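Narrative progress, year one. The postdoctoral researcher (J.K.) led the effort to move from monomer predictions toward full complexes, under supervision of the PI. The following entry was the first complex the group processed end to end, covering 933 residues in total.
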Amino acid sequence: MAYVELRNISKWYQGNTVVHDVNLKIEQGEFVSLLGPSGCGKTTTLRMLAGFVEPTAGEIYMQDKPLYSKIQGINIPPEKRHIGMVFQSYAVWPHMTVFENIAYPLKLRKTHKNEISAKVSEGIELVNLTGLEKRYPSELSGGQQQRVAIARAVVMKPALLLLDEPLSSLDAKLREKMYQEINAIWRRTGITVVYVTHDQKEAMALSDTIVLMKHGEIIQRGSPCDIYERPANYFCADFIGKANILQGIATVRGDSGIMISKDMFLPVEYIKEAEEGRNATFLFRPEHVRIIPEQVWNNGCHTGYSGLAGTITYRSYFGSYMEYGININYKTEIRAESNTQNLLEPGDKVFITIHKAITVQERED
Amino acid sequence: MKFRLTARTMLFLLVILLVLVIDVYPMLNMLLKSVQSTQGLTFQHFIDVFRDSRNIEAIANTFVVASSATCLSLILGTGLAYLTNLTDMPGHRFLRVLSVIPLFTPPFIYAMAWQQLFNPAGYANKLYMVMFSTREPLFNIYGPAGIILVMSAGSFATVFLITEGAFRQMDSALEEAGMACGATPMRVLKDITIPIMLPNILAAAIVVFITEISNFGIPAILGFQVSYYVLTTRIYEVLNEFYREDSFEAASAMSIILLVLALLSLWLKDRAIKQGRYEIAGATMGQQARVKLGIIKFPISIFVTILLLISSVVPLIAIGLTSLIKAYGLSPHFSNLTLANFTGVIGLSLVKKAFANSLGLSVASATIAVVIGTIIAYILTRTNWKIRRWLDIAVATPYALPGTIVALAMILAFSRPLPLLGISLYNTFWIILVAYIARYLFFVVRTVSAAIMQVNPDLEEAARISGATWYKSIRDVLLPQVRKSLISSWILVFSHTISELTLSILLWSAGNETIAVAVFNLQETGNLTSSSALAMILLLVSLGGYLLIEYVNQVNQLKTGQSIRIER
């Protein structure tokens, strides 16, 4: 049995399904992110793990022992689960000092005084707060409160650490610094982590495994690379990174590519999982689009290839790259990323080729 | 969700049961009594009420007095709010403090104070007669005119506070935006200023109206002398007509009439507020441009100061003087002053008993109300029980309704022996305690739930996940966060109950007098010096309570930015 296991977990409120039949196995020491748009059920899933929300159906096991089981009538209260949690609002108690906050879980476990101060110091060191023990939360910055919350959650060496969008209220710069720190804490403690976020960058940067959720269901589970390279469907591709979509018929024989329409063939350098001759939805990332100005194209540098003709609609500068919007055939808009040299202007005529695309299930919406 | 009968659920159910017994049952029981007879349901009691011309008169008087006082309060209150907030009249800070003094004075003591100024031989009248060498008094306080005057003087601060809030909310940018669109100043007033202000003024008017129809102390002290009755005093009178067999039924039928009046007003207020809660977008309010009054600002300021001194300070000086004078009627020479009234009145065994009773009642009701009220506040803010809405209404009703109704409901509910115990609470200390708790529980529930709502539930959950049981998460995390509100609401209940008259006057019995009842009875028997001395003590105690709350509040505000509103 896996270290943590959710079996057929569902939650509904007054006929409203929030989480539907979720099955999830988490190995010891794994860093798992639950990722999805707001309302996808990720926080509810986390809170069911913590014991704050009672599932409507299913079972939760940790270390082979049931935390919750509808059938067996078991529901271990949060305080007995031995789980650490970091809240979105930090939930650092304002009437207790940094030391008292971190010591509280140990105090409840009737730990000896000397041991408490040793463990708290260890925790404070772990999150780099040394010297602030006697401060009250109101005297700390947001980032420092965040560290207190983390130290408090790990000080009792919990079997599992839950983090509920812990970085969402920090500014971008601090957030990236905290990625590294959370990662370092995870490596040093070897703790099993479930991390809830709606920020794909955060999930990519931190996790072993990303669990992508939508409408209360798990859509895809895999390593960050898996999910980026082989998204299960349009939703996954679009949620993680940017994605373009085209409909057509796959041809693998001879030239591999997509028949967009009878007389329009788009060569694709690499097609994965496309079944020949079938209608398919093709998905490709902006960085896999090559833009060739009309002039260059007509000069014949690309004989032997055909490309899609389009018009630049917009241009956004991102520092390290330039994003272009390209209108194909007056109906499809494609996003492409390119270097910041040889700038094109909106209205410029271009041709595009695509290096790499995969077929996915039909777009749902 | 499955329903589990945990210790916590049991505790909640117990508290809800208590609310049912002390709040819901008495009110419903009274409604029933008013239409019940030995033969079944009847409207006979109402018909009887309307048959007695004295009752009709009382209803009419209630209307006349309450609506006149409301109008007068409205004019004085909005006028003052305008002057202090939107003009450059000097001294507006001082005037604001001055104007709210009557709010912290128990109404019946305030009425006593005015009565000592303006009874036909009162200080002000005497002064006038001496100065203008006439035998005619300037103003006779007894009767409707005096009642209206004292009510207005005591209530306009309420209007002032509510409309002041609205004036402050009015960002002058709103009006400037109107002008920028091309509206003339008159159009701006009509289309922007008045529509934004009106719901608040209306709400203030209704609050005052309800206060006036509920008031017992003022019409009792200024009306009984000349047999002028309003509904509350008439109900008191009817209950004291021992020869009547149907006094309870008649009183409850009259209470229902008062109830309908109050409910109707509450409903109107609700509508006014619903229509008028304009959330002004933007976190910071623009500085209000103050209207320049020019040279007349000094005479206006002096006039307002005199007016406020007369309404706020002079009556209290009068009652203070009476408490220190050897005999009422003596001129206030230094040689005529004495502390004997204080020592004398405290020496009375009846007063000693009353002090013990009042202290016991106030401490007990404040403590019990804080415990129960906190649990109710928790149920209201932290559970999703469907009963919450009804619980909220059940707790708010006894406070929103006139005290006379609540007292009568208590008498009707608890005059019969209690089941199981076989003893009746009627004519005991305990019925007063139950009534106090029922009426003032609302203070605690409102104050504490506001405080709990400020506390992120994550804080308690963080304690749970750290290993704390539910009880420990409340004890170690939630209660320390709301401690200030617990203290404030305790003091609030204490200072209201220590000077409470309306409930006590109907519920007291020999040996169970409260201080307020003692003051009232001494006053009714004409012992003005003693009653004034006692009133002064009462005044200082309740004023001390408010100052204490103000202090707790300020400390609280410094630490958490929360504030707790005081309301009389």
